[in-house]
Amino acid sequence: MTTHIIKMPDLGEGIAEVELVAWRVLPGERVVEDQILADVMTDKATVEIPSPVVGQVLALGGEVGQVLAVGAELIRIEVQAQEAVSPSPAGGGPGWGQPPQAAQAVQAVPATQAGQPPSQPSPREGRSERPIASPAVRRRAWELGIALQQVAATGAGGRIMQADLDAHVAAHGAVHGAGVPAGVRPVQRHDEEQIPVVGLRRRIAQKMQESKRRIPHFTYVEEVDVTELEALRAQLNAKWGAQRGHLTLLPLLVRAMVLAVREFPQINARFDDEAGVVTRHGAVHLGIATQTDAGLMVPVLRHAEAKDLWASAAEVARLAQAARAGKATRDELTGSTLTITSLGALGGIVSTPVINHPEVAIVGVNRIVERPVLRNGAVVARQMMNLSSSFDHRVVDGVDAAQFVQALRGYLESPTTLFVE
Q1: How far is it, in rounded angstroms, from Cα 228 to Cα 251?
Q2: Is-contact 365 249, C-beta < 8 A?
Q3: Using CA atoms in the order 410, 412, 416, 421, what is the torsion angle rounded to 10 degrees?
Q4: pLDDT of residue 185
């Protein structure tokens, strides 16, 4: 028997530490080559760490939420003498077998010299205490009065399925608490659920706190009549949708922002407040705030100024899909000069978006609603939408912010001007 210490590999230039966001294995489990051992987070990207060996897990090198330095012990695996170690498994994931640091990620230690491994977590440590289940399963469990922690999961990755609830009810019955048949007296609930703030959620919290701490925000809200813009979008989709793809509002808004920042370059900027330097960018690298299952991510539409409507739409769709699948690269998640954020149909009528530090502005898009508007002495139905935009008051004056938003409004309300250079 040989004990192999697998160390945290070098995952890229400039990355000195990572956060451990999930364990895929537990002590005592047998693993095979290329099996995923853990998920770690670098900046905003989640990386899977595969096993280069076949063997049995002896000990985990940390708990979920812990920050590990490159080269720190990640896991110990006991390997049979005849089971060789693969120094650089093909397709084994980032870091393995690439730079010299990664080549040293696996260290063999004879079992007789390995000493006592680090204290081993109990079988439930290292995994999230929050059961994995869809909203529909969670609601049904609540209606039945069943704690999901008590339900045996059969789905992939430990996910609780509807069939698992059926099996639990068949074996143990249902409590029928609040939310079921009328006339049943409601019962008190005393259950609590503690959810560690780890992984992307922790990064989001840190980023938002840093933005609000550093930047004196002010928000400017303006309503925009997008009736003509929506009519143009419908015409473009009717004529070109089948060949070029369906257009949402977003690529039209991207085009309007590209034109508006030409007039107000102080908005398309980043502020290094420690050096006291504002950098105005000719390139428009638009951050597109995207909601994912793991939390908010901001993939970057690079060189929006050089893309037409359909190219912007295709790239935004690709970036959103990569972000939601957890496959967005570090380069795709950094370097934005200005950000758009929207909750779509849930966008409300006003919001106060938080600036994506070190940028100096963010444009928030509220939902489109049809409402009566007085035009030329008559009340007519129009498609109306608010823009709720925040600015860094240290470097953007109120009048500049207002003029920038009014320029946006002008382009959106007269959409033919979007195509005039």
Answers
A1: 15
A2: yes
A3: 70
A4: 62
Strands (E) located in 196-307: 217-225, 269-272, 277-280, 286-288, 290-292, 295-297, 300-301
The CA–CA distances, whole Å, from 164 to 109, 144, 156, 168 equal 42, 13, 12, 6
Residue 235: phi and psi, rounded to 5, are -65, -45
- List Cβ neighbours of 156 (8 Å cut-off, separation of 6 or more): none
DSSP structure class, residue 155: S
Residue 184: its pLDDT value, please? 52
DSSP H/E element including 137: helix 135-144
Four-point Cα dihedral 17, 19, 24, 25, nearest 10: 70
Determine if residue 212 is left, alpha or beta; phi over 0 gives left, psi from -120 to 50 gives alpha, anything else beta. Answer: alpha
Helix (H) or strand (E) holding 368: strand 361-375
List 59's β-bridge partners, or say none. Answer: 76
What's the pLDDT at 389? 97
Distance in angstroms (rounded) separating the CA atoms of residues 392 and 382: 32
Q: Pairing mode, if any, of strands 217-225 and 269-272?
A: unpaired
Q: Annotated active-site positions, please?
A: 393, 397
**Beta strand 361-375 with 338-342: parallel, antiparallel or unpaired?**
parallel
Cis omega (within 30 of 0) for bond into 358: yes
Three-state DSSP state, 84: coil
Contact between 9 and 73 (Cβ < 8 Å): no
Residue 270's DSSP bridge partners are 279, 359
Looking at residue 15, its amino acid is I
For the chain, list residues with pLDDT below 70.
Answer: 13-14, 43-44, 81-129, 174-185
Q: Which residues pair with 284 in a beta bridge?
A: none
| Beta strand segments in 126-216, E | 132-133, 159-160
| Residue-level pLDDT at 381 | 96
**Inter-residue contact 3 to 76 (CB < 8 Å):** yes
SS3 call for 3: strand
94: how many CB neighbours lie within 10 A of its CB? Answer: 18
Residues 362 and 354: their CA atoms lie apart, in Å, by 7
- Both tokens of residue 142? 């609540």
By three-state DSSP, how is residue 29 classified? Answer: coil
Burial (CB < 10 A; 0-12, 13-18, 19+), residue 295, is: middle
CA-CA-CA-CA torsion sign (230, 234, 240, 246)? positive
